[in-house]
Amino acid sequence: MFLSYVNETSNFPFSVALVIVAILAVIEGVGLMIGAGIFGFLDGLLPDIDLDVDAPDMTAPSIGGQFLTWLRIGRVPVIFSLIVFLVAFGLIGFFIQGVVGAIFGAPLPALIACIPTFVVCMPVLSVGNVVLGAIMPRDETSAVSRDSLIGKLATITGGEARKAYPAQGKVKDQHNQTHYILIEPDMANDVFPQGESVLLVRRRKSIYFAIRNESNGLID
Fold this sequence. Notes:
Number of strands: 5
Radius of gyration: 21 Å
Mean pLDDT: 78
Largest sheet: 5 strands, mixed, barrel
Low-confidence stretches: 47-62, 138-142
Structural class: alpha+beta
Distance between the termini: 56 Å
Shape: elongated
């Protein structure tokens, strides 16, 4: 009975949200078994969101900026905020459809049901980001500017970085917090194997370009 309820057309968006979460969980589990977590990698692919959530600039507030600050976006990696939203969207959507169906005899059309579900998800996402930010290790929750990582040493952690084929790497910021990023050689002929230390020299969107660390005086 539960499976038939989940598969109803009116519940399709909420089923898809939970399926996406399940797929991400399976991918992360496989990644951990082979020694390369996928969440840090996916977070590097998402757009930059550089917010000072602890001390927002209220001298020139904007509606969008205040809204993102209220959601606590930036307290945790964006991929975790996405998972919180998807789980909340799926479960709340099923709940709303169940209540509406019990009262009126039929659920709302899928697109109509998405509207109240989305609205209710917003405070849940805000609270979820606060809770995750409080319990996650500090080296996973930095919200510093991505450009501030340029000039720092990084280590290749997953795969082999070649020109046009970036690999996952990690780098520590000025607060000694760890960021997982995508790294590609700045020189066309360079190849960076897993474990190699490189120097970040520039960034283009979500990709950082690096050169070999030729100086023994540079340390991570």
